[in-house]
Design goal:
Blueprint (H helix, E strand, L loop, with lengths): L28 H10 L2 H5 L18 H18 L4 H10 L8 H12 L7 H12 L13 H7 L5 H5 L6 H5 L5 H24 L5 H4 L3 H13 L5 H31 L4 H5 L10 H19 L2 H23 L6 H28 L3 H12 L6
The structure holds magnesium ion.
Magnesium ion binds next to loops.
Amino acid sequence: MSALAPYAAQQDNSRGRRHPEPAPAYRSEYQRDRDRIVHSAAFRRLEYKTQVFVNHEGDLFRTRLTHSLEVAQIARTIARSLALNEDLAEAIALAHDLGHTPFGHAGQDALNACMKPHGGFEHNAQSLRVVDELEDKYAEFRGLNLCFETREGILKHCSVKRARSLGDVGERFLKKRQPGLEAQLANLADEIAYNNHDVDDGLRARLLTIEQLREVPLFARHHDVVVKAYSGLSPKQVRHETIRRMTNTLVSDLTEHTRERLRRLKPKHPDDIRAQPAALVGFGDQVREENQELKRFLRQHLYRHYQVHRVMVKAQRVVRDLFEALFADPRLLLPEFFAEAEAAEREAGQAGRARVIADYIAGMTDRYALDEHERLFDPRRLR
Ligand code: MG
């Protein structure tokens, strides 16, 4: 990697790992983090987890896995162009959705409602729990033992109550500080990725139309450019040429406005970034507003589309049924999970039992959850 900016995360300004380890021979510390994430079971499960469309709705829609790869690609581009740590940005991007339940936000809302009396459930906090606790296959430590900066980036938001129990990575939520730049840009790369790929998937699913999308200024102005520049394009080409221009506008605007803010602030160390009252990575005013309008449009016309809604209500029912059945009778769990639930209950009462069940459900893929639901509720299923 060529020379990084003084405010980029680097090995010599890293806060290190919870369990100290010898330095890797050929990789940077953040490359090692990225590799551990890619080798985790939670990462492989992303392939069968909903982004917007449930896995069995079609083979060509984004999944959590392809979404995470698109986020990583955007994050790496921005990081490299600003002389930030590309490996760290990539690691954060690949891990950011590891804690997602099956069935996307609908699944998380249902699980959160079930967990209300037991401390709640939040997919972002769960992503950190996956890398800190639940991936349990190394001899010398629990979790993946990632660097502080990677864990800091994974924890995007957090309640004050939870922050108190999280130690060093929770501190910034108590002191109202910022995370490092790589974390900030991975967060916005997530937004850029889903806003654009959801337009693409929504059009391909025929839940959205070009005419509707032309209400959105960011879409309309790039659509105009494409239609004016070319004649005889197929609908697929028009769609792609428009969306790639939107993505490019968002990435360029974000990069240039962030570069300008860094030029003015002249930070000398990542901690100068953390001490700021607000995030430094961001769009300029016009594009920020256009991006907001796109988000509002998607919320209203795609995420609340009745066809999406019907699938999601069914999905919530599945999650709720699973939780209620397993919580009422933990002996329905596989024996190793039952033993874990019992141990957790001895330690933390009902909340302990509930947490083991929530971890189990959150770890399920869409299809595993549907299958487990059948196994539990269909008397004709033997196993
Ligand atoms: Mg995401």
